[in-house]
Amino acid sequence: MKPSIIIIHDDRRAKITGKYPVKLRITFLRQSKYYPIKIDVTVEEFNMIQNPGNIPKLTPISIKREIKEWKLKCDAVEVKATAVIDKLEEFSFRLFEKKFYNSQQSTQDVCQFYITKVAKLRS
C-alpha cells in the first residue's frame, strides 16, 4: 500500500501578509502529515497555479512568470516525494522525511523532473 501525495493550499491560518502557505500533504493509513514548500500565495494565485490555463489574459507578464515558477516548484516537490516513496521498501513517515530532506536529488534538476513527469503520465 502506497501513500497518497498532493499539493495543498493550507488555508487554516493566514500569515502576516494575508497569504497562505502551500504544502505537500502525504496521507498513509488515514494519517496525514504536511511538509512546507516555502511558497505563500493567495487563494486566487493558488487557483492559477493549479489551473495555469485559466490565468486571465490581463494578468501582467511578471505575475504569469511567477505563477509558472511556483507551478514548476510544486511539481518538482511532488515528483521528488514520489521518487523517494518509490525507493522505500516499506513506507513510514520517519523514513520518508529522512530520505526526502537528505536526498541528493535536486528539486532544480529540470531534465529529471520532466523525465519523471512523462513516466508518471504514461503510467
Rg, alpha carbons: 15 Å
**Class per helix and strand makeup:** alpha+beta
Task: Please count the beta strands (DSSP E, at least 2 residues each).
Answer: 3
> How many helical stretches?
4
| Percent of residues in β-strands | 15-25%
- Arithmetic mean of pLDDT: 88
Summarize the biggest pleated sheet.
Answer: 3 strands, antiparallel
Low-confidence stretches: none
State the helical fraction: 40-55%
- Please report the distance between the alpha carbons of the first and last residues: 17 Å
What overall geometry do the principal axes of the alpha carbons give? Answer: globular
Spell the H/E element sequence: EEEHHHH
Instruction: Strand order, main sheet: write it out.
Output: 1-2-3
For the structure shown, list the relevant keywords:
single chain, 3 strands, alpha+beta, 123 residues
Question: Any chance you could write out the topology, listing elements then pairs?
Answer:
Layout: E1 4-9, E2 20-28, E3 31-41, H1 43-50, H2 61-87, H3 93-102, H4 110-122
Antiparallel strand pairs: 1-2, 2-3
